[in-house]
């Protein structure tokens, strides 16, 4: 065995983490295993006291500091998980901790750090700004800097995750998937696994827009990214550490890159198996497991994903829910062009049939054609392609929008502005039971002489769906009578000032 690998094995075996950390469970993801056709296991680091593995490395570093250094205190830079690990470790060891966080850090995270008794300093717009300021504070006040990843004691602390996996699962394991930011967790897990059971693959997982480690390994030297994506803020690192790079280059069996939609789908997968909501970094390993299984087929053996964190901001959940279906290939999005003539909406609805509608947006803007944004629930991308062909065969031009970020992030939420063609328009808001076919039933039950000039519907995942519809009707009384026959709650919004400001 390589001398340096032997040294890391000793460091990991003697790491002091359990004063504050817990041995997290290794749980089988039953639903995901059944779907992928191979056993999938989740190493639940999201169940640590700070909801992240970072506590292990921070404490192992701090507990080994000389008494005089510990008495002076420590300083670190972090946007969240490492900060909480340092703060809790400092409380346990009775020392001062100064945590520098970017001013953009969500209050949820900064409050959590303060809750452990640490001093929070908000500085700069990025981790790099916070890192520089933390180094300056440390030098000026005699504080010891606790690096989030590029330190042998930190790496060894994270390596205890790998030690627990092999102790908890002594049967064969095909591969372990580890999210990578700066590389501390990957380096620690790989060091232990390759020293004890080298036949197990250790695969690093990176976001497509934050892939500093994968690029560095490919090029043979550390690469610094100009920009990193912020969706997975826990792995948004522009440059990996020197020691973590060395270990990853020597020990990792490869890297898989995953995108935002795939991670959102993985968050949903873990929720369905555990009823736990992971943060994006925590779900990256699961996204990679799914990609790996799709490429290698079923029955490849046990796959382990480290679910490394659950510090999710609540306000991100709406975005995650919307993108999860796209990431799983379970939602098809189309821009469908139909003639601007009576009966076109009905024919479009006939093509949609009993498919569950997730989105339906339209605003009259042209005398000849209408452009309708349509979202449909599908089983996979194959069904999405078949649906697109069905539109085309029915004479409707259909543009597939599933891989169009502009459509998914913005256009789907917009219904256009005022239209000179919407004369005599009245606006109504409906609420109806959410079930397959309900929206199509609503559309097909309308009188053929009533022209729809605006339509907005989004499936919110609730028991009730909500529709906003603009109708050009010669007799409002007749429309009200029709609405009453539906048996759904409805409101006439024609005099609403917001409607008059933005749409009329």
Percent range of helical residues: 40-55%
Shape: elongated
Approximate strand percentage: 15-25%
* Overall number of strands: 18
Q: Could you give the distance between the termini?
A: 75 Å
What structural category arises from helix and sheet content? alpha/beta
Largest sheet: 8 strands, antiparallel
Mean pLDDT: 90
> So what's the CATH class of the largest domain?
Alpha Beta
Number of domains: 3
What would CATH call the architecture of the largest domain? 3-Layer(aba) Sandwich
Gyration radius (Cα, Å) is 27 Å
Spatial order of the strands forming the largest sheet: 14-11-13-12-16-17-15-18
* Number of helical regions: 20
As for the CATH topology of the largest domain, it is Rossmann fold
Low-confidence stretches: none
Describe what this molecule looks like in 3D.
An 8-stranded antiparallel sheet has the order 14-11-13-12-16-17-15-18. It has 20 helices and 18 strands. A hairpin with a 5-residue loop joins strand 12 (357-363) and strand 13. The protein has 3 domains: 3-53 and 152-325, Rossmann fold; 54-145, Rossmann fold (3-Layer(aba) Sandwich), CATH 3.40.50.1100; 329-502, Biosynthetic Threonine Deaminase, Domain 3 (Biosynthetic Threonine Deaminase, domain 3), CATH 3.40.1020. Helix 1 packs across helix 8 (152-168), helix 3 (54-63) crosses helix 8 (152-168) and helix 5 (81-93) packs parallel to helix 6 (107-115). It has helices spanning 3-13, 30-36, 54-63, 67-72, 81-93, 107-115, 127-141, 152-168, 184-196, 212-219, 242-251, 260-274, 280-296, 317-327, 344-352, 381-393, 405-409, 438-444, 476-486, 497-502; strands spanning 26-28, 40-43, 74-77, 97-101, 119-122, 144-145, 175-179, 201-207, 254-258, 303-306, 331-339, 357-363, 369-377, 397-400, 425-433, 451-458, 464-472, 490-492. It has 504 residues and is α/β, with parallel strands linked by helices.
């Amino acid at each position: 065995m390589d001398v340096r690998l032997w040294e890391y094995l000793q460091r990991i075996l003697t790491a002091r983490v359990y004063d504050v950390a817990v041995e997290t469970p290794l749980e089988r993801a039953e639903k995901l295993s059944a779907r992928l056709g191979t056993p999938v296991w989740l190493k639940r680091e999201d169940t640590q006291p700070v909801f992240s593995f970072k506590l292990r490395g921070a404490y192992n570093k701090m507990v080994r500091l000389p008494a005089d250094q510990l008495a002076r205190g420590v300083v670190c830079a972090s946007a969240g998980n490492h900060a909480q690990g340092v703060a809790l470790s400092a409380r346990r060891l009775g020392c001062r901790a100064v945590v520098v966080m970017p001013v953009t850090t969500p209050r949820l995270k900064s409050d959590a750090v303060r809750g452990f008794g640490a001093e929070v300093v908000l500085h700069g717009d990025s981790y790099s700004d916070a890192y520089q300021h933390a180094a300056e504070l440390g030098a000026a006040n005699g504080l010891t800097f606790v690096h989030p990843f590029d330190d042998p004691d930190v790496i060894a602390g994270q390596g205890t995750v790998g030690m627990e996996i092999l102790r908890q699962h002594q049967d064969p394991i095909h591969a372990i998937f580890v999210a990578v930011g700066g590389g501390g967790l990957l380096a620690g897990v790989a060091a232990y696994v390759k020293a004890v059971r080298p036949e197990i693959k250790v695969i690093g997982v990176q976001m497509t827009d934050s892939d500093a480690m994968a690029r560095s390994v490919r090029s043979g030297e550390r690469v610094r990214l100009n920009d990193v994506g912020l969706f997975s803020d826990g792995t948004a690192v522009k440059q990996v550490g020197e020691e973590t790079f060395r270990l990853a280059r020597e020990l990792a069996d490869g890297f898989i890159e995953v995108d935002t939609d795939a991670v959102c789908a993985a968050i949903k997968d873990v929720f369905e198996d555990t009823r736990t909501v992971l943060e994006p970094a925590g779900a990256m390993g699961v996204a990679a497991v799914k990609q790996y299984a799709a490429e290698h087929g079923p029955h490849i053996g046990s796959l382990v994903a480290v679910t490394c964190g659950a510090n999710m901001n609540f306000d991100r959940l709406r975005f995650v829910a919307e993108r999860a279906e796209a990431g799983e290939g379970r939602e098809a999005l189309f821009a469908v062009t139909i003639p601007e003539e009576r009966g076109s909406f009905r024919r479009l609805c006939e093509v949609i049939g009993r498919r569950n509608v997730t989105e339906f947006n339209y605003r009259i803007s042209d005398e000849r054609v209408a452009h309708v944004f349509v979202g449909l629930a599908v089983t996979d991308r194959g069904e999405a392609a078949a649906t697109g062909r069905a539109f085309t065969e029915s004479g409707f031009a259909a543009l597939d929008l599933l891989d169009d970020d502009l459509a998914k992030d913005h256009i789907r939420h917009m219904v256009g502005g005022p239209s000179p063609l919407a004369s005599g328009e009245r606006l109504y808001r409906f609420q109806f039971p959410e079930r397959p076919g309900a929206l199509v039933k609503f559309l097909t039950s309308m009188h053929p002489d009533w022209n729809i000039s605006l339509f907005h519907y989004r499936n919110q995942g609730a028991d009730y769906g909500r529709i906003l519809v603009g109708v050009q009707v010669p007799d409002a009384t007749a429309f009200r009578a029709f609405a009453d026959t539906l048996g759904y709650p409805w409101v006439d919004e024609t005099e609403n000032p917001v409607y008059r400001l933005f749409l009329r």
